[in-house]
Amino acid sequence: MFKFLKGVVAGSGTGLKDLPYNIGDPYPSAWGSWSHFRGTSKDDGSPVSIFALSGNNAQDGHLAAGRNGVKRLRTVRHPNILSFLHSTEVETHDGSTSKVTIYIVTEPVMPLSDKIKELGLKATQRDEYFALGLHQIGKAVSFLNNDCKLVHGNVCLASVVVTPTLDWKLHAFDVLSEFDGSNESASGPMLPFEWLVGTQYKPMEMVKSDWVAIRKSPPWAIDSWGLGCLIYELFSGSKLGKTEELRNTVGIPKSLLPDYQRLLSSMPSRRLNTSKLLENGEYFQNKLVDTIHFMDILNLKDSVEKDTFFRKLPNVAEQLPREIVLKKLLPLLASSLEFGSAAAPALTALLKMGSWLSTEDFSVKVLPTIVKLFASNDRAIRVSLLQHVDQFGESMSSQIVDEQVYPHVATGFADTSAFLRELTLKSMLVLAPKLSQRTLSGSLLKYLSKLQVDEEPAIRTNTTILLGNIATYLNEGTRKRVLINAFTVRALRDTFPPARGAGIVALCATSTTYDDTEIATRILPNIVVLTIDQDSDVRSKAFQAVEQFLQILKQNYEKTNTGETGASGGASAIPETAGLIGWAMSSLTLKGKPLEQAPLASSSSAPSLAAAASNVATTATEAPSVKASHHTRSNSDFTDPPAPPSPTSTDGWGDAENGISEGHESDKDGWDLEPLDEPKPSPALANIQAAQKRPVSQSSRPTATSSRPKISAVKAAAKTEDDDLWGSIAAPPPATTSRPLNLKKTVQSDDEDPWAAIAAPPPTTRAKPLSSGRGRGAKPAAPRLGAQRINRTSSGM
Question: What is the residue-wise DSSP string for 197-226?
Answer without folding.
Answer: S-GGGS-HHHHTT-HHHHHHS-TTHHHHHH
